[in-house]
Automatic annotation (TrEMBL):
PANTHER family: TRANSCRIPTIONAL ACTIVATOR PROTEIN LYSR. GO terms for biological process: lysine biosynthetic process via diaminopimelate; positive regulation of gene expression. Belongs to the LysR transcriptional regulatory family. Pfam families: HTH_1 (PF00126), LysR_substrate (PF03466). GO terms for molecular function: DNA-binding transcription factor activity; sequence-specific DNA binding. Residues 5-62 form the HTH lysR-type domain. Keywords: DNA-binding, Transcription, Transcription regulation. Coiled coil: none annotated. It comes from Gemmobacter lutimaris. This is LysR family transcriptional regulator. InterPro entries: LysR_HTH_N, LysR_subst-bd, WH-like_DNA-bd_sf, WH_DNA-bd_sf.
């Protein structure tokens, strides 16, 4: 049975592949050419197959050696991430708060909440990842203090904090026939209308499709978008109407866009997640408080606009 590689042998092998000559690798490692030459011979004896072909005073890795090199580089990339994280911790003058959020909240809820938190804790560093925190788990490893999601969620590995409950609203291009009038719009009002829809797997898209299908209402779908903000941009450009979450929609009100209530509007809930096995940091609680306050303010604004 061949012995396993030690760290010194890995460093020698990596340096030779990277620099191409024993002389250059020795200089990089602070060693001598004769010493490294002997170590290469012992290395090849240890692995049990040839690692290098010697041509024109250079060492060319064999096919097997390249596979080994790629495996080593993958391991080193993990170490690089660890060191990069360590450097961020050293550079931060205060606490580091990690947030994982759906993209729609990174553009609607979070900016104001982060601004309020930074006014209280100017030394705080906040790292925001635009990904679904529900895709993480104790097995893959939680990498957030606070995660922002929409809809229901029930999992024993996370604490769920309700931030706000809303109803979706209609976005109409200014000047569109549906932009005028009072009272909530109904499913039948969208008959034969150009409708900007979310992606085919979006849960709110599926709910709306079912509602229109059950009501026998046919829409035209000229554009499908993966993001709520992208759909709002399409409405603002006059492509069609849409029905979306009110937090994103409010950011477009008055910018060539009219908002109207929707009688059969699906519920839209916003929640924060906190991994139960992750220590609770003070700034996570304060950020959650600001998010709750902003959701309450949005609810009041929607009420004043007669959108709920």
């Amino acid at each position: 049975m061949n012995p396993e590689l030690n760290l010194r042998q890995v460093d020698v092998f990596r340096a030779i592949v990277k620099f191409g000559t024993v002389t250059a690798a020795a200089a990089a490692l602070g060693s001598s050419q004769p010493t490294l030459t002997r170590e290469v011979l012992r290395l090849e004896a240890s692995v049990g197959f040839q690692l290098f072909e010697r041509r024109r005073q250079r060492l060319h890795p064999t096919a097997r050696a390249l596979k080994l090199y790629h495996a080593i580089e993958e391991a080193y990339s993990g170490l690089d991430k660890i060191n990069a994280s360590l450097q961020r911790m050293r550079a931060a003058s205060g606490e580091i708060l990690q947030v994982s959020t759906l993209p729609t909240f990174a553009q609607s809820l979070l900016p104001e909440a982060v601004a309020r938190l930074h006014s209280e804790a100017p030394g705080l560093t906040i790292e925001i990842d635009n990904g679904d925190p529900r895709s993480q788990s104790p097995i893959s490893g939680f990498n957030f203090d606070i995660g922002l999601i929409e809809g229901e969620y029930d999992d024993p590995t996370t604490e769920v904090i309700r931030l706000g409950a809303f109803r979706q609203v209609c976005l109409i291009p200014a000047g569109h026939p549906l932009a005028s009038g009072t009272g909530p719009l109904r499913l039948q009002d969208f008959e034969d209308q150009a409708f900007v829809s979310l992606g085919p797997k979006d849960p709110y898209r599926l709910i709306l499709d079912r509602l229109f299908e059950e009501a026998g209402v046919t829409r035209r779908l000229p554009v499908t978008m993966q993001s709520a903000n992208g759909a709002c941009e399409m409405v603002r450009s006059g492509i069609g109407v849409s029905i979306l979450n009110p937090l994103t929609a409010l950011g477009y009100l008055g910018d060539r866009v009219v908002l109207r209530a929707f009688a059969q509007a699906p519920a839209f809930e916003v929640s924060a997640l906190h991994p139960v096995d992750r220590p609770w940091v003070d700034t996570a609680g304060r950020l959650t408080g600001h998010l709750k306050a902003i959701c309450a303010e949005a609810q009041q604004r929607l009420q004043a606009l007669h959108l709920i």
